[in-house]
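Design a sequence for this backbone.
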């Protein structure tokens, strides 16, 4: 990227000093060479247009499995006060809804954030082919042991609270409520799409005969 292109480019990122999502100017960026496309990422040094504070952002490479097209994910602040990253293992529709919930929270649109958390849960159910209304879909995931009872209770609470974000006249969602909902949604995605896969890989790796994994006796 040329210097002129770098100066003209920018990233949407949350500035902790301004407590707002801003379109920050890219000062410099670097993408380390890696062999595995799943590990490809780039780091950008950006400047907040309001307070001029420097921020460091990280973006992972996002590949569409259907089209093979790729792009970088939304910028995540890694300095100062690092933001939590949505794992690339989370399917794109689920990840997009969760990231929009996080952006809404950053913009202090807490009811909108709650509504997008509900959308996140909907996308999780859609990923597993669940049918019916959202309550029925969650029951199906629980009955098929895709989620356990505790995760079901969390997801159902997100469903109910998310309804309040889209209905006129309902009580507004507080900042604390929105933060809790985001925490629960991230935990559900981590459980379903990240930890479950790690456990399956662990079982495959350790499924051989016990003797082959034990050290020989001296």
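Sequence:
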């Amino acid at each position: 990227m040329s210097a002129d292109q770098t100066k003209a480019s920018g990233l949407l990122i949350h500035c902790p000093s301004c407590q707002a999502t801003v379109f920050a100017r890219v000062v410099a960026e670097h993408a380390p060479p890696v062999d595995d496309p799943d590990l490809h990422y780039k780091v950008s040094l950006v400047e907040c247009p309001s307070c001029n504070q420097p921020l460091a952002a990280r973006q992972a490479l996002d590949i569409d499995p259907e089209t093979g097209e790729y792009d970088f994910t939304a910028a995540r602040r890694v300095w100062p006060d690092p933001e939590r990253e949505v794992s690339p293992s989370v399917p794109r529709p689920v990840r997009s809804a969760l990231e929009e919930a996080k952006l809404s929270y950053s913009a202090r649109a807490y009811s909108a954030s709650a509504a997008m958390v509900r959308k996140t849960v909907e996308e999780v159910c859609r990923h597993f082919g669940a049918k019916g209304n959202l309550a029925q879909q969650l029951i199906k995931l629980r009955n098929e042991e895709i989620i356990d009872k505790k995760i079901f209770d969390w997801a159902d609470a997100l469903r109910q609270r998310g309804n309040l974000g889209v209905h006129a006249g309902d009580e507004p969602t507080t900042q604390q409520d929105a933060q809790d909902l985001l925490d629960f949604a991230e935990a559900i995605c981590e459980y379903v799409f990240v930890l479950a896969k790690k456990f399956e890989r662990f079982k495959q790796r350790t499924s051989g005969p016990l003797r082959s994994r034990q050290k020989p006796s001296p």
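Residues 7-85 form one domain.
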